[in-house]
Design brief:
By secondary structure, this protein is of the alpha+beta class. It is built from 5 helices and 9 strands; from the N terminus they run E-E-E-H-H-E-H-E-H-E-E-E-E-H. It has a 7-stranded mixed sheet with strand order 2-1-5-4-3-8-9. The longest helix has 12 residues. The two termini are 25 Å apart.
């Protein structure tokens, strides 16, 4: 079933870059930006993470917490967050279970080759755990602005 605004956000559990278990339930009562991306260190993913970092105070002032999710390892996330001084957590989803739960693990095409991977997507989840908005045409360099322009 494809997720849509107004639906409950699927519950998840994953380890962050510090090896700490994070759940959606921990964000009950808070607004959450849950963004899915393909890989740490790639140009577009780095631009997106740094854009959210650079606008993090504005996002917090608007009441948002931020979590990123990719299939990268905890160690890779730790290196990425340290290198780019990210003030938010990145969750490791090595078996793509959370990606699949949110419907972002899809068939993709690159250079004529088909493969399954993460489709860059952001879910805005309200204090009650309901999906308020889904951004599926993410502009990496302007992502915070996309989120704040509700």
């Amino acid at each position: 079933m494809k997720l849509k605004p107004g639906m409950p956000a699927p519950a998840f559990e994953a380890m962050n870059e510090e090896g700490i278990r994070i759940t959606l339930e921990q964000y009950k009562g808070k607004k959450l930006i849950l963004y899915f991306y393909s890989a740490d260190g790639t140009p577009t993913c780095t631009q997106q993470a740094c854009n959210l970092r650079d606008h993090y105070k504005q996002l917090q002032q608007a009441g948002y917490d931020v979590l990123g999710i990719s299939t990268d390892s905890v160690t890779k996330h730790k290196n990425f967050t340290t290198k780019h001084k990210l003030p938010f957590s990145l969750l490791s989803d090595p078996d793509a279970q959370i990606n699949k739960l949110y419907g972002v693990w899809q068939l993709k095409k690159r250079f004529g080759r088909e493969y399954t991977g993460t489709v860059r997507t952001t879910f805005i989840i309200n204090e009650d755990g309901i999906i308020e908005r889904i951004i599926d045409k993410v502009k990496a360099k302007e992502h915070a602005e996309q989120i704040l322009s509700l």
